[in-house]
Design a protein that fits this description.
Lambda Exonuclease, Chain A, 7-stranded mixed sheet, binds iron/sulfur cluster
């Protein structure tokens, strides 16, 4: 994967939209469309709470930084981590404003519960790769806090997971470079999609203008032959 200039950076949070539905990502991130539903509103409130209070806090051997801006030239993304915890550690990295050495551990806050798809996990892994590039370190794991079950799920950043992040972002970069919003693929996800009234996925089942015109011409020809 090559290095991307800053003006080609994609929003890191877009990974979750792309995994949910590539068209949803295209509508939001390429066409700047947006619509709220109950899920998006709940998610926004949860993130505002995660970012509440001071941006940094120290509790003994634990340093907590909130809403930390991150980017990666290699992946071509930028965004923010809800929370990055830094644990005091002898062979950790040094930080500009804080004495000592630290081991970073990103934490993402999500509404709901762990999901079958990989959207949340891939987003967290992309954050970790950004942190690794910025801090010149290796991050082995992070966690996702799910509000519905009020628990953290630890995530190990395996080579396979990192590869999936890179492949997903590469596909997104390809769509973005072409300015192409993926076509609708109606599925059960549409019922939970805030963009359904903008996307109109059922129209996907209607014939294209070209095939409509072709069949209309064919009908006229048949009539003329009578
Ligand atoms: S309505 Fe369905 S096809 Fe359209 S963006 Fe949402 S999930 Fe994707």
């Amino acid at each position: 994967m090559s290095n991307y200039p800053e003006d080609a950076f994609l929003q890191l949070s877009g990974i979750q939209h792309f995994i949910f539905c590539p068209r949803q990502w295209g509508l939001i991130h390429l066409e700047q469309q947006w619509a709220e539903n109950v899920r998006t509103t709940e998610g926004k409130i949860l993130h505002e709470r995660a970012h509440d209070g001071s941006l940094s806090e120290k509790r003994g051997d634990l340093l907590i930084l909130r809403d930390l801006r991150v980017h990666s030239h290699r992946l071509g993304v930028s965004g923010a981590c809800d929370v990055v915890e830094f644990y005091a550690c002898r062979d950790g990295i040094s930080l500009a404003r804080w004495e000592g050495r630290w081991r970073p551990f990103p934490v993402e806050y999500k509404r709901g519960r762990p999901k079958k798809h990989q959207a949340d996990v891939l987003q967290l892994c992309a954050q970790a790769i950004c942190l690794e590039e910025m801090l010149c370190c290796t991050i082995e794991a992070g966690a996702i806090y799910y509000a519905e079950i009020k628990r953290r799920q630890e995530v190990y950043f395996s080579p396979e997971l990192r590869k999936t992040v890179e492949e997903t972002l590469s596909q997104m970069q390809d769509y973005a470079a072409r300015g192409h919003t993926p076509r609708a693929k109606p599925s059960r996800s549409c019922n939970a999609c805030s963009m359904i009234n903008i996307c109109l996925p059922k129209l996907r089942r209607c014939p294209s203008a070209q095939s409509y015109l072709c069949s209309a011409v064919e009908e006229v020809r048949i009539c003329e032959n009578f």
